[in-house]
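Researcher: Hi, I'm a grad student and pretty new to this. My advisor asked me to get structures for two proteins we've been looking at. I'm not sure of the right format, so I'll just paste the first sequence and hope you can take it from there.
Model: That works fine. Here's the first sequence with its structure tokens right after it:
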Amino acid sequence: MPRDPRQIQLEIDAARESLAATLDQLADRSSPQRLKAKGQAAVQHFLQTPAGMAAAGALGLLVTLVLVQKVRHRKD
């Protein structure tokens, strides 16, 4: 039984709209601004955990030691 051309066109239009909506969602999810904000939120969340605080403290200590070494070597 042959299909009605109008029904076929309606199905094509519905598929096109669905594809357009999917592409819009993908574009929104992969936008640089959204990815940047998501990354910043993840880092802020990590830094509020005990492990994150310890890592930040260790990094601060390492930077301080390197700067002290550079200052000491300048005097020599």
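Researcher: Oh nice, that was easy. Here's the second one.
Model: And its structure:
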Amino acid sequence: MGEEMDTEYDVIVLGTGITECILSGLLSVDGKKVLHIDKQDHYGGESASVNLSQLYSQFKKNPIGKDEIESKFGKDRDWNVDLIPKFLMANGELTNILVHTDVTRYVEFKQVSGSYVFKQGKIYKVPATEMEAISSPLMGIFEKRRMKKFLEWISSCKEDEISTHQGLDLDKNTMDEVYYKFGLGNSTKEFIGHAMALWTNDDYLQQPARPSYERVLLYCQSVARYGKSPYLYPLYGLGELPQGFARLSAIYGGTYMLDTPIEKVLYTDNDSENGNFEGVQTKLGTFKAPLVIADPTYFSHKCKSTGQRVIRAICILNHPVPNTGDADSLQIIIPQSQVGRKNDIYIAIVSDAHNVCSKGHYLAIISTIVETEAPHIELEPAFKLLGPIEEKFMGIADLFEPKEDGSKDNIYLSKSYDASSHFESMTDDVKDIYFRVTGHPLVLKKRNDEDAQEE
């Protein structure tokens, strides 16, 4: 195999996280000759889906044996647990990329049943329709009318029609000024900002309104697409996404090598600090390319901490979450102000309906930004909402981002996955790296039928 393999490529990609696999697929479709390498023997990198015995060995000092796991939780192979939980927005950019690249042929999605928000000790369903909004206990009757006017403005505002702006300038007015214009109260602002725009804290209030406007619009369009909730989730877990893009890359001639550690990174003048990327040395040989795309673990010296850490708790339940109408999947957002924090707490819940756990079980994955010296205690409000927990796995991760944009040394690095509950920030990173690597923005074009037939 080593003798027959090509040694020259257009792009080398290191790591099979979702970000890296999407870029590998997109560049392969563009006609680039891509070599994709991962030191691990499975797809997904930091964002892999693992079975229970892998989960135990990763998080527990004294992991229990496979027989004990199976007697307690059913077959090990029935479990596909996401290490980093996120949902897809039905109308979001990742969904658009999946549709336009036809990766939807390899990955099947199921809608998430509901989105909930925590308020004054209870959880409430985020209204998905006008009917639900009218009957929702989240707002009083007058506030509902004001909220309706706000949402009408969101859906009717057109960039080139000043009359639809209602005197607001999205780039000059802050989001707080927009709320004031519609007379919305604090709890409604919190609900819109955190459960619809999905901001993790309140910094957005003093910033220009455009990003918030776009996020609320995306939320509304995503709900409108299928009803119930704005979220989608792949059957068999998020590990299906990198594999889907790997298959796409392979169809277009991409080469994959798993379980292949990098022995040495090669630079043009043998000086790792000043040289440009030239290639990598592995047990299967030396491979060269003018540029590399990688996750932060491959070039940690070229990354810096964002100063934030994320805590995630993976909980196994043998019952649906109380007060959710026995939903098979949902998201719960605990806004920071409700529990005296600076950052929201997210809970993503999936079940055997998504082929990620054995029958009768549920997975609840909690994530937030660490704020204190006792991060485990910070998750208490979320644990209380879940009811009895059968097993709990906890991990803390530092968030990293590249120090430079890659233009100097042709090393393009992705960012760590944040605490948010969806893929929009990750997709922004994909588009940003794509632009820096190719020099032009990612334009999503549908593939024509002839291409598909030739395969």
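Researcher: Is there anything I should tell my advisor about the second?
Model: You could mention this: The first strand starts at residue 11 and ends at 14.
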